[in-house]
Amino acid sequence: MLKPPTAADRGDSPAVRSLPRIAEYLGLMAVLVLLVALFSALSAHFFSRITFTTLANQIPSLTVIAVGMTLVLIAAGIDLSVGSVMALGSAVLALARVEWQLPLSVAVALCLAVGLLAGLANGFITVRWAVPSFIVTLGMLEVARGGAYLVSESRSVFVGAAMGRVGMPLPVIGLSPAFILAVLVVFAGEVLLSKTILGRYIVAIGTNREAVRLSGIDPRPVVVSVFALSGLLAGLGGVFHVAYLESADPNSGIGLELSAIAAVVIGGTSLMGGRGSVVSSFLGVLIIAVLQTGLAQIGATEPAKRIVTGAVIVAAVILDAYRHTLGNRREHD
Amino acid sequence: MLKPPTAADRGDSPAVRSLPRIAEYLGLMAVLVLLVALFSALSAHFFSRITFTTLANQIPSLTVIAVGMTLVLIAAGIDLSVGSVMALGSAVLALARVEWQLPLSVAVALCLAVGLLAGLANGFITVRWAVPSFIVTLGMLEVARGGAYLVSESRSVFVGAAMGRVGMPLPVIGLSPAFILAVLVVFAGEVLLSKTILGRYIVAIGTNREAVRLSGIDPRPVVVSVFALSGLLAGLGGVFHVAYLESADPNSGIGLELSAIAAVVIGGTSLMGGRGSVVSSFLGVLIIAVLQTGLAQIGATEPAKRIVTGAVIVAAVILDAYRHTLGNRREHD
Amino acid sequence: MAIANVAEPLPLLRVRGVEKRYAAPVLTDLDLDLRGGEIHALMGANGAGKSTLSRIVCGLTTPDRGTMSLGGEPYQPHSRRAAQRAGVQLVMQELNLVPTLSVAENLFLTDLPGRFGFVAVAALLARAVEALTALGLNELDPRTAVSRLGIGQQQLVALAAALAHPCRVLVLDEPTAALTSAEIELAFAHLRRLRAAGTAILYISHRLEEIRQISDRITVLRDGRVVATQPAADAALDEIVRLMVGERAVGALDQRDHSPGDVALRVEGLTRGKRLRNVSFEVRKGEILGLAGLVGSGRTETVRAIFGADRTHAGRVSRGPGPPLTIAGPKDAVRAGIGMIPEDRKEQALLLSQPVRMNMTLAVLPAFVRRRWWIDDARELRAANELRLRLDVRSHSLNQRAGELSGGNQQKVVIARWLLRECDVLLFDEPTRGIDVAAKIAVYRVLNELAARGKALVVVSSELAELMALCDRIAVMSAGRLVTTFARGEWSEDAIVAAAFSEYAGRGDTARRGRVDSC
Amino acid sequence: GTEREPSRGTRRSAAEPPRIALIMKSLANEFFVTMAEGAKAHQAANSGTYTLLVNGIRNESDLAQQVALVEQMMAQGVDAIVIAPADSRALVPVLGKALRRKIVVVNIDNKLDESTLQQVGIDIPFVGPDNRAGARTVGATLAKRLQRTDKVAILEGIPTAFNAHQRRLGFEDSMRGAGIDVVAVQSAHWEQDEANTVAAAILREHPDLKAILASNDNMALGAATAVRQADKTGQVYVVGFDNIPAVHQLLQDGRVLATADQHADRLAVYGIEYALKILRGETQPHDTQTPVDLITTAPH
Ligand SMILES: Nc1ncnc2c1ncn2[C@@H]1O[C@H](COP(=O)(O)OP(=O)(O)OP(=O)(O)O)[C@@H](O)[C@H]1O
Ligand SMILES: Nc1ncnc2c1ncn2[C@@H]1O[C@H](COP(=O)(O)OP(=O)(O)OP(=O)(O)O)[C@@H](O)[C@H]1O
Ligand SMILES: [Mg+2]
Ligand SMILES: [Mg+2]
Asked: Which helix (H) or strand (E) holds D213?
């Protein structure tokens, strides 16, 4: 709930580092380890290889979507449409594969294209009419969901083997190609953010859009491409989702935007823009996933699940905050 | 020679206006009229007194919650917990009234107290550990929902007449006391914002928190009270909800935060804080309500509903934006 | 690239009949000629239209009427980028750096060196170091985040950014407002080199002695009109001032009797990391203490620490003989009767998107409240209006957004905020930054008056002349230490500058870089 | 099941009682809570014969999470999985995996899609009520109160949900049978609040509407309030499905005419008992119907 960093904010900054130091992640990793330890203590079966592979194969969609969301938030925007866009994408994918019998590659391309288009629309409307991205993407959330219902005639479609083994665990390691791809996307995202010119502009725009404009750079194309990217990744999330479920459900991804934003913010990205790291967002995703899986495994009751989840999310962020210098603390109080 | 203040000085302005000029609302009102006209054209029965009274009696909860949300957003915070807190409140209310047979007044007081406490917790944690309110209230969203399930054992409870006629239409006018109360809350909110010192501080903090701090004003108590207020109003929303539906459903208010924020942002309040009006938020609520009712009344299909809703939300904001001076442009993104 | 067409006879930049109005007319029928190889000073009272003109020249604002030509060809920059391509660079009055990016990235934001979209870090740092050294900033690590820099250092970075890009026309809008003579000397050396290379420089400043030092010609602006253009050589400063401010009497600073009362503020062993080392001093009732020092010497850190704006590691602050105060935050400080005017008006003081009146009364709102809650608009308005007149704030209404005011007028608003609040100790950090000559006198009067009323004042300023005119004593800071304090009469400009350098001498650059890297 | 090749589950089952995983839809939903509690009670009564692990997903539509739950339960090496699938297709593949791991799988509440089962080449027994038939009987009772060509409206659940579809079909069968005219079918996503809004709108659009058929009682509650708000109490009938306690009062007052009880508290138990039978090798997998009773007056 803070304005962009002020001159008074003299804490450490993404700018100073190329790829961020491992130290940055200690706080979140501590939380993660704590959670795993906790659940291992509570359930005899939790601490097993299969638990972790299952977990890993479950999160690719959320992961890639969180990557896109990180960039959007750092650019001081927000993308509420990711869940619906993912659903729309998967619906199209299923249609193309099952109804039209198109080759996998083409179907996937279609799915990605849908996501990209939705993202471009978000970005374009946002900059063209200077509408808050919250509203634009909220609109897209509804529209894309409607689209998903249309395409799928509101029925989930079984795709089965038609998706190949993208979502299936690989023989020895037990991890799915989807997961490995997702991890690659995470690193690509981190590199984009901290190593490329586009990334620097994203940070700059998120910090002080006016300053960027005044210094002679047009922020709009950057903003558009960020939303486009987020849309594209939502599409990719759709592909992974279908691959994992072997079917496409027009209702999938409801409320996904909240989980994604939560993961990203747990990862320390500021909703006010200008500050954040993709890798941290990934840690955020892991924390949420472990929490869900763990609670299910120990068979917690629904109320318990809710209350614990809520408490842990807040605790995680507080704990992580203690890692930060007083420098940042100062501007908060 | 001391010049007296000029007319321009006394003239209205976003922050220091007496109650804002009607002109500010023209854009939204236009949208509203358009929608009503549209649906009246599409359905013979839409344009009738009964339509508007039922509509009015449906919105008190959303209205009061939107009022709270407006203040929170102006203070550059966000409150995602309103829906769950409302559910928790109503669950407690039902319990107190049906199980414990407490007098209505006491039961209501309890419900409000629950809301207030939740809000205080949100505010306190936010300022004490400098956690983004997004995370804190997301946590509360989970915790309060869990609480609602606990209290109600995950069952909806029929309250029926036990709630008196708060939610029932009054004889002649056809409006419910709840609606009238809600409208009063709206005006109270507008007055608080534009006439009182607290309101002034809220705007100031949302604009530049650091500047406020360096002016020797501690922003924290203000922030806490804003969240407390939002919680209290969520509680009140719960009362209205139960009164209207004659029963308490622990699953009520899921996703309500999004509708509320949407209404507020449609009303022109900035998510970045510092700018907004409560009355406009009310207009936002009306727009959303008319849209829902209208689409249901013309029997639109599910996909159609979604797509139209999405499109209209965006269109509304764009149309409204045309009223605004370019000055505000850059605050959007 | 621009350097090609050096010695042009006819003016390089020609402005004809430019007009601009917002709520009120700002520029009316304005003509201006800028020759290659000249430094052309643009002077005028706050709100005269200088920044607006420079924004127009650099494509940030489109004039309502009028034409411009650059090197003969018609010139209508539709964006800052276009202006830059045409070889027109600008240092804006309001700093527009990106706090989360490094100094290097800010220096070359518009043209980050890269390969296949990747930032070429090595090249970037190399160019950055070069640009910084040119301004004597060789001690500043280009990888530091700008959010760590004091306002003065930020101003130097902004200047370096402009100078690092070759250009035909260079517009400098109060580039030195927060710089001390030391940094200014280096800057000027650089400007003279550019002039020699044939660059046309439009130089905006409120510091008369600078103008005399550096400018070839002077154009005076009043209420958006050119009232005079003449060679700097035969320009009498008081004449120029009169042209600037018109009939507004400037007058001299009336003498205040310098006989301070007993101690009002005692600071002992203030320490904050390596940036503030064991700073101790006293201020007495009715006394004005000046804090001099180089940019980054810790003056701001000192006042911020006293005011409780930052957490300090060690040190005691007490009101005179009283017990040490526990100041957890600015609120406590204010309760203890200490007020502060921060150095960075945009980030730390103003509510840019809010009305002037709201900005003026923020700190004293409770004074305009009826029945604990209700704001008494009428009284608030009256008070705000008096302040406006007292400090001569140029705004066409008290409800104009503070962000729309000219830089100097914004600064006046910031000062105004603290005049209503009856603090016994007031800390002013660069109080006259960007304020015009006449208004400065007005501010000095206010300060004197406050002192006369028995308040204790600490004034941080980069303008030595200002301190020497105002203060009873001047404390000099160097590398986070308070090295010496001169009493009135004892001081001389050279002595003060020498003291300001003392702590850096010998330990050289490493010391300062150390400070920047710390924490 | 001694003849089955050993898997983590069965190896243990020699020693201790079999472990059964009950996987529900949203345990925030009253209906499934009742199911779960029924099951827990049953287990408590037969703690010797089996151990029980109950889990539900966050919301109806979070398929990925339910699939993950199945995999986790496999990871835990349970002997049987009794599942109320959140989707009739998406769950089939993972359940196929479970079968291949020699885990007994029983399908309750929401019937898995036949064609998908065939495509995957597996066969999973369904133990549960026929929602369509249930809806038909409810509809029939309503039909008795109406004349031909009377107008009625249907409130559907989440359109993609199998049961939502079944109940809608059941309602439509009965109405068509009685020559009654269904003028509106809209989804209120099982929600009381939305049901109220939609019902209110439909009532205005069709002033001569005679009845509202809600696909669950939560929506029936919302509809009943809408009727009262429009003060048409008595003129417009409301029927529901599930017989949750909250509607008893309304049944009393006649504001809700009828609902169907599929014995939520027993549903899971049927499934569990059936799974135990299979584990003991007492029966070969085949579908079995469980009763759906018509409720017209609140039980006392
Ligand atoms: N965006 C704007 N909207 C309305 N008025 C504006 C805007 N920008 C500038 N002005 C007005 O134009 C006038 C000139 O402003 P400008 O910044 O050019 O003055 P200046 O000469 O730079 O003064 P200073 O010496 O204080 O910097 C001021 O009165 C200011 O209020
Ligand atoms: N968090 C930080 N990390 C590194 N260096 C810092 C940090 N905060 C402040 N500094 C440095 O401490 C020094 C003191 O800053 P300060 O703003 O007090 O300088 P100053 O004397 O006020 O000069 P000016 O304000 O004109 O820059 C500056 O060099 C500043 O860059
Ligand atoms: Mg200026
Ligand atoms: Mg300073």
From this structure: strand D209-214
What is the DSSP secondary-structure string of A109-124? HHHHHHHHHHHHHHHH
In A43-168, alpha helices (H) = 49-58, 60-74, 82-94, 104-128, 133-152
What angle do helix axes A256-266 and A82-94 make, rounded to 10 degrees? 130
Q: B112 Cβ partners below 8 Å, 6+ apart?
A: B89, B232, B235, B236, B239
Which domains occur in chain C, in start order?
13-245 (3.40.50.300), 345-422 (no CATH)
Contact indicator for D254, D227 with CB cutoff of 8 Å: no
Q: What is the bridge-based pairing of β-strands C456-460 and C263-272?
A: unpaired
Tell me the ligand closest to C302's alpha carbon: 2
Antiparallel, parallel or unpaired: β C374-375 and C369-370: antiparallel
ipTM, 2 dp: 0.88
Q: Do C80 and A212 touch (CB under 8 A)?
A: no
CA of D102 to the centre of ligand 3 (A): 80
Residue C355 contacts B where some CB pair is shorter than 8 Å:
yes
3-class SS at B253? Answer: coil
Ligand 1 atom with least separation from CA of C411 = 26
- Residue C175 beta carbon below 6 angstroms from any ligand 1 atom: no
Nearest-CA residue of chain A relative to B264? Answer: A135
What chain B residue is nearest to C344 in terms of C-alpha separation? B211
Contact A48, A242 (CB under 8 A): no
The CA distance from D108 to D131, in Å, is 12
Closest ligand 1 atom number to CA of residue C50: 21
Beta bridge partners of C290: C459, C474
- Helices B49-58 and B177-195: crossing angle in degrees, nearest 10, is 60
- pLDDT tens per residue, chain D (300 residues)? 333 333 444 444 456 789 999 999 888 888 888 899 999 999 999 988 999 988 888 777 778 888 888 988 888 889 999 999 988 888 998 999 999 999 999 999 888 988 889 988 899 999 999 999 999 999 999 999 999 889 999 999 887 778 889 999 999 999 999 999 999 999 998 888 899 999 999 998 899 999 999 999 999 999 999 998 888 888 999 999 999 888 998 999 899 999 999 998 899 999 999 999 999 888 777 888 888 999 987 555
Residues 248-287 of D with CB under 8 A from A: none
